[in-house]
Amino acid sequence: MSVRLRLRKTRSKGYSAYFDLYRKGQRQCEATEIYLTADYQHPLRDETGQALRDSKGQLRYPKPSEQDKLKLELLEKIRLQRELQLKNEEYGFTDSRVKRINLLDYIAQIYEDTKSAHYGNLIPHLKKSLGTMLPFCQVDEKMVKKFLTYLEEEAKLGSNSRCTYFATLSAVFNYAVRDKIITQNPCKLLARQDKPKAEESQRTFLTMEELALLAAAPVPSKKQHQVKEGFLFSCLTGLRISDVLKIKYSDIKEGVLQYRQQKSKAQFHYLPLSGQAQELITSLQADPRGEFLFWDLNRKITHSQRLHILDEWVKSAGIKRRITFHVGRHTYATLLLTFGQDIYTVSKLLGHSSVSMTERYGKIINPKKTEAVNKIPRILHKGETGKQENKNGTAEKWDRLGMEEFDAMLREVFCEKIPELA
Fold first, then answer.
1. 3-state DSSP helix/strand/coil percent for the chain, to nearest 5?
2. Contact (Cβ atoms closer than 8 angstroms) between residue 119 and residue 172
3. Tell me: the pLDDT tens digits for 98-157?
4. Count: domains in the chain
5. Could you tell me the sign of the dihedral formed by the alpha carbons of 54, 56, 59, 61, in that order?
6. What is the residue range of 244's domain?
7. What is the DSSP secondary structure assignment for residue 8, as one 8-state letter?
């Protein structure tokens, strides 16, 4: 492992200084933004290209100016420091100056890079519980325990909220390990009993009747109309609001949406769009820039405005529950399962990485299945046992009017032709 100073001639700024880093058989260049007036690494040459030598036979090099002398001294100090840093990394040590980086400043930079509200929300809680100066050299599992105690006893947060903050803090430490600021994540050093435990939360979803009420409820302004369209689209596709905002015209081809989830940034997902979802898309006002489907929702409406408009619209439809945009995703999943889709297919449509994530909807659907079964119209004649013989000797006598009603209901629900029942 070594670090070598190199000079490269530029067109107008003389010679640019950079470092060649050699480690594990790999070469890497690092620029310095420091420029010298001459190449002090190669000897002077005459007109024929021969290297010049002094009276003692030693090669002659350009004599640096006073300013270049200072720059060369600085470059040598940087080279030695960089080499020491690489050695520390190789043997698992961390530069003490790096460990003095403030944790809060580090989180603020992550928030600036990712724009994730989880990191932004974490900062004020850390300030209240641990103060404003949190150098990485003081970060350990005791600090994490103190923070978790604050979340439970002073902030009075529920177990699921505490789990979210703990996971976010752990993600910060994972970034710090990757950046060689610390050698291990202190959150992973906690004993199992000291870590917050998530409780199974009740998933809110809309019924078919409530969806119909929302679809029929008018909204007065263009801004509110985009919120309505975006929410209904989520109910028809199961997309999170973060994914709805990013849909571009170019993402939809032949009725299939190709997208990458904003939450996981994982592989691309391919989502077939239902007829109603495609109808909603065609009814949208076109983006003047020809870019996003929900362009007003993306560019002009803030998160808090979206929530306020959604809340007012839900109230105007006569629904008295608190509804968020994520309820659209829950609604999509529960409707699919209620009408008989298998859990594996629903898992793939939602973009879940594991079927176990989708199984959480199972407890919601069981009572809905019972309710759906009880809505089947009467098939047998009143007073009949269903075991009465007819003229042809058949064992059952069916009510044809009831069967026709049942067939019509199935046609309406599944929107496809069902063979006549003989």
1. 50, 10, 35
2. yes
3. 667 889 999 999 998 888 888 999 999 999 999 988 888 888 899 999 999 999 999 999
4. 4
5. negative
6. 208-369
7. E
